[in-house]
Amino acid sequence: MSALPRAITPDMEALPEPRRFERMRRFAAGAAGEWQMAPWTARAAIAVLTLFYLFAAASPVIAPYDPARQYRELPDCPPMRLHLTPAAERDHGWLFAYPMKLADPLTRRYVEDRSRKTYIRFFYHGHLFTTESASEPYFIVGSEGLGRDLFSRIVYGARVSMCIGLVGVLISFSLGISVGAFSGLVGGTTDNLIMRLCEIEMSLPSFYFLLALAAVIPSGMSPVATFFMIVAIMSFISWASFARVIRGMAAAIRSAPFVEAGRSLGGSRLRLLRQHIIPSVLGFAAVNASLSIPGYILGESALSLLGLGIQEPAASWGNLLSQAMDPQNLEHYPWVLLPGVFISLAVMAFNFLGDHLRDRLDPTNLR
Q: Which domains does the chain have, with CATH numbers?
């Protein structure tokens, strides 16, 4: 007779949970603790940056219209007011706006057309919100000089303005850490030569040098190629100062006992860099990176504003501000300044986040 299977009792030892779930729980608990300890400025900065990067990642869904579509009959249209749809008409949507019509083409004065309604639909045709017909737009923050939806162009512009900082920092800081750590570890003539080259690069006037390099970008390049050219130029300008700081930290660490122990055990320079020097400076690099991203955003915005960066019809927050350079436009169409508000919020958010990371990683401020 075969033995009956043993019944499962409550006191039996449970199967061990996979390690990955345990790590995920620990990471979630640590993130929750950091969130609770963070000041309100850091929390607000994280929320703002999350929203802006959501704009960049989900632009086709969040933007209600094609950013390049022109509504020639609605140039410089002001923001449209929303109204609650009567109960009998809610099959079309809960909200509607009266279409705008140009009453005075000379002054571009608009009035609402009360004879028609433009219904707002949510999660419609693959968009977060849009209108039933794309030929009858709803401008939540107005339109620009060519009649394009300003909100859609701001959302698509986040792809350039928010990503250029991350890509630029990734390139310049990778180069700065590698060169600085190697120079500090090696020392001697090689160290002196590398630092003199860094000083020559740092002696160049950054903004004017940036303008000179950007001016040679061919005008017929695609927006993607232009984006990477701008990133490469800005990264080339900004890596040297960071490499000097990393070199000083690496020179102080190379005589530390754990580095001497690795060297005495026959560790190569590459191993010492990878195992000891670079990990020791990553904390400072993370803080400096978050504080350097605003410089890339402002640099791209300045180039695009001057016509040397991202070109029409592609959108970036910098070239969207070109219409705001005319004081008359600011007086009559103040909503064209809205991309500058997004730039200011992004810059302040990165600065607040960098200040928080600096305080958290400072050994004298450990809590």
A: 83-131 (no CATH), 150-365 (1.10.3720.10)
